[in-house]
Structure formats: C-alpha cells, structure tokens
Task: structure prediction
Amino acid sequence: MTTWRKEAPSYHFAMPCGIIPRPGMEKPMIRLCAPDELAEGHSRGFLIDRDTLFAVRKDGQVFVYRNRCPHRGIPLDGVPDQFFDDSGSLIQCAAHGALFLIESGECVAGPCAGQSLSALPCTETADGIWITPWAQA
Ligand code: FES
Result:
C-alpha cells in the first residue's frame, strides 16, 4: 500500500482560461493534457479552480474522476500522480487503502465498499483529453 504523506500533492493545472468551445459541441470543454501526457497504465492529477481531478488510462481508454474518496472526502493520492495500488489494476486511496475499479470507480474493498468515485465524462481527440467539469458521467 502507498504511504500517505501529509503535504499536499502537487497537481497539473488546467486553468479555466483553458476552456475552449469546440466546433459542434453544445458546451465548452476543458483540455486536461495532450493524449501522450497520459501513458497507458498511468495516472495524473489536475487542479481546475479549486477542484482536484485525476485521469487514468487503461487499455487505451481514459477515465476521469473527482479526486475525493467517498469515505472521508479527502484526496486519494498520497504521492503526486500516483492513484494506483501496487498491482496497477485498481485505484487506491492512500489514506486508508480503499480500492476502486478503474472502469467504474466502484469501491470494491475498504471502508467505503459499495460507494463510487464521482466520474466526469471525458473525450479524447488527437489534440487532447477533454472534460466537461460540471457534468456527471
Ligand atoms: S479516506 Fe479513503 S479510504 Fe478512508
């Protein structure tokens, strides 16, 4: 299990000025990063306004969640950009070890078993990984 540290993790900034209306889209989206900045099997944290999010890539697909454990509402990462357990197959809360499915955010072990992370819809294009922050997946 990852050791939880008390200092605040650092995040990659996706500032509101990054809101770019894309042709054909009803609502503007925020670009988190370039596709190649989130490699297969990796995770990455982001700060948008005061909201922290994280993105993970598994089997080529990107999943984005709010960085908030349903157990206590605190950030999941104890080390910047480290959201996985040691096996790399589950998302883990560094504070008390809750484990979540990457594809759905459902907690499958730990104090919040049966609850889920809050997912955000995301879209990947050739020029970025995009989210609609006010929508739920
Ligand atoms: S705060 Fe995440 S498991 Fe307790």
About this structure: The radius of gyration is 14 Å. Confidence is low (pLDDT under 50) at residues 1-8. The chain has one domain: 12-131.
